[in-house]
Amino acid sequence: MNPILQRSLLRRSIPVLLASLVSGAAAEPGGAQVVRVEAEENFRLEPNGTRLATLAAGTELDFVEARDTWVRATLDGWVWAASLQSTDRNGFDLVVSASGGENLREHPRGRVLGRLSEGTLLDEIERSTGWVRVQRTGWIWRVSVEVDETRAPSSRSPEVDREADGGGATPPGGRAT
User: Fold this and answer.
1) Which distant-in-sequence residues (6+ apart) come within 8 Å of 133 by Cβ?
2) Please, which residues have CB within 8 angstroms of residue 177's CB and are 6 or more apart in sequence?
């Protein structure tokens, strides 16, 4: 092929190639993978490390990476604010301070995703009356999860059902659950 024609084609192809790379970035593995817990399992600081939480079957996490017999994923959910304390330890915003730990929920007053261990460090994402949305990346045993590459993580609404909530900040039973 003529060298001048080759350069011309290359010059016209680069913007198209770059555009396709940028638009395809969201579809790359890891960008939209969901990890679904198949059976109750521990969520750990590192493979076989300190337990951060016990997750319920059906809980979904955002896939980060897989290594050997472990999957690294990010947990996202809501915690009753009274069960947390501010911290600046290891770059985290919050620590679970409730004796015995605290439930992590899909949304305020929602389905329980698991139980966070007392002392677990968390990143604060947002707040809604009496509740804090938190995240934490950790490890879970690969045998206990299914990685679903066909759909993006479910969005978790920060809205509280005011009718069910009665407009107050106290959870059912008058204590954090």
Assistant:
1) 76, 77, 78, 124, 125, 126, 127, 156, 158
2) 80, 103, 171
Per-residue model confidence (pLDDT) at position 50: 97
- In sequence order, the β-bridge partners of residue 139 are 44, 72
Question: What span, in angstroms and rounded, lies between the C-alpha atoms of 92 and 116?
Answer: 15
- Cβ neighbour number for residue 93 with a 10 Å cutoff: 16
What's the pLDDT score for residue 29?
Answer: 43
Higher-pLDDT residue of 65, 1: 65
The CA-atom distances, in angstroms, between 15 and each of 9, 21, 27, 75, 89 are 11, 10, 19, 37, 45
Query: What are the phi and psi torsion angles at 129 (to 5°)?
Result: -25, 105
Q: What is the pLDDT of residues 66-99, one digit of tens each?
A: 999 999 999 999 999 999 999 999 999 999 999 9
* Cα 28 from Cα 32, distance rounded (Å): 7
The model's pTM is 0.69
